[in-house]
Amino acid sequence: MRESEALRLQLRQFVAREIETPRLQLRQFKPDDAKELHRIYSHPDSLKYMSNEKPLLWEQTRAVIDSFTEHWKNHNFGVWAIVYKNNQTLIGHCGLKFLANTTEIQIGYLLFKSYWSIGLGTEAASAVLKYGFEIAQLEKIVAIAKPENIASRRVMEKIGMKYEKEAHYYDNDVVYYSIGREAYQLESMRLRFATQKANISSSIPLFLCLG
Ligand SMILES: CC(C)(COP(=O)(O)OP(=O)(O)OC[C@H]1O[C@@H](n2cnc3c(N)ncnc32)[C@H](O)[C@@H]1OP(=O)(O)O)[C@@H](O)C(=O)NCCC(=O)NCCS
């Protein structure tokens, strides 16, 4: 790779560590986030479907932030803080990390309960998937969930992941989904085409009115 190309890529990766979607800002965690994040991680509903199921202790929340920060230092992917743009509140996390004891990379997400079921999980996850394939240049992204975690499974499906198998990770029976680069590219093309089509058809009545 030429030096200027390498520099451009590095710059792109640095810039992309902040992601903006219509309603969300995905940014790096900072130590100051501990209080807000702890409010989320200590809520029983947030952790119901996670591996240990128990609300986190204060020290554990701080350790999680440290581990996210450390991960970003060593890799060009990691976990972002999710900020709801409307009220500038930290509402959860979403990102990419290694699946336990494997070289596979998993996507994960968690939102504070008041923000569930309005499409924000999907909005964050699709932005992270895009980052994974287009910036971090990953070949495959996987996701796991407890079988009964329907909301999480729906998010996986809505971002184009496919159910692959039942598996066992982090001491839990889980369902395992995945998406490869090629399927991601096809899905992105399909979505772009669908959006263009929607724009064309929504403009038809206007033409009819004018006509
Ligand atoms: C998983 C999580 C991030 C989803 O976030 P979200 O913002 O609510 O997700 P979305 O609104 O984008 O999509 C949720 C989908 O699940 C559906 N859903 C939610 N609960 C459901 C239920 N009990 N039964 C059927 N469908 C359900 C919603 O209707 C929606 O699907 P639709 O758009 O087809 O209607 C959120 O529920 C969460 O933080 N859960 C706790 C942490 C967690 O479980 N993380 C994942 C670990 S694997």
From TrEMBL:
SUPFAM superfamilies: Acyl-CoA N-acyltransferases (Nat). Pfam families: Acetyltransf_3. The keyword Protease does not apply. Residues 24-182 form the N-acetyltransferase domain. One of its GO terms (cellular component) is ribosome. One of its GO terms (molecular function) is acyltransferase activity, transferring groups other than amino-acyl groups. Keywords: Ribonucleoprotein, Ribosomal protein, Transferase. It comes from the Bacteria. This is Acetyltransferase, ribosomal protein N-acetylase. It comes from Allocoleopsis franciscana PCC 7113.
